[in-house]
Amino acid sequence: MPKIKMTCPHCGSDDVTRDCLGRWSVERQNWEVSSELDSMQCEACDREIGSDGFDEVPVEANTRDIGLAITSFLEGRRFSIHQENEDGGTLDPVADAAIEAIDASDPDNLVLVVDGGQRFTVRVIAGAR
Ligand SMILES: [Zn+2]
Questions:
Q1: Higher model confidence: residue 83 or residue 98?
Q2: How close is the Cα of 114 to the center of ligand 1, in Å?
Q3: Are 53 and 76 contained in the same domain?
Q4: How many whole angstroms from 3 Cα to the centroid of ligand 1?
Q5: Could you report the per-residue pLDDT of 27-43, keeping only the tens digit for each?
Q6: Domain count for the chain
Q7: 47 C-alpha to ligand 1 centroid (Å)
Q8: d(CA 21, ligand 1 centre) in Å
Q9: Distance 53 CA to ligand 1 centre (A)
Q10: Are both 77 and 36 inside the same structural domain?
């Protein structure tokens, strides 16, 4: 699901709040939003936002989001390892491998461990800033 953010229609800030009713959850031991009220505010320009509400702006993926998306895409899949020839083409596969584990503790530098024990680092080098 692509993420969106709520922004102020006047100044564009995403430092916005909305009044909500909360209900205590005994099960989860915290307050949960049970309904959203029409009262919305921008903390940046101190405006009351009317019933038109906030602008919904898509959030471009950063390298961390891309890393996590790659992780969920690769997990549990098999892939084949190819080397390139001099022309940039691909030779026959060297090996077929299943991904045994992905270390995504640093999502910009994923470490893939394949079933042969080899480790690969996937560096996510571009994304929105
Ligand atoms: Zn504002």
A1: 98
A2: 49
A3: no
A4: 21
A5: 999 999 999 998 999 99
A6: 2
A7: 6
A8: 23
A9: 12
A10: no
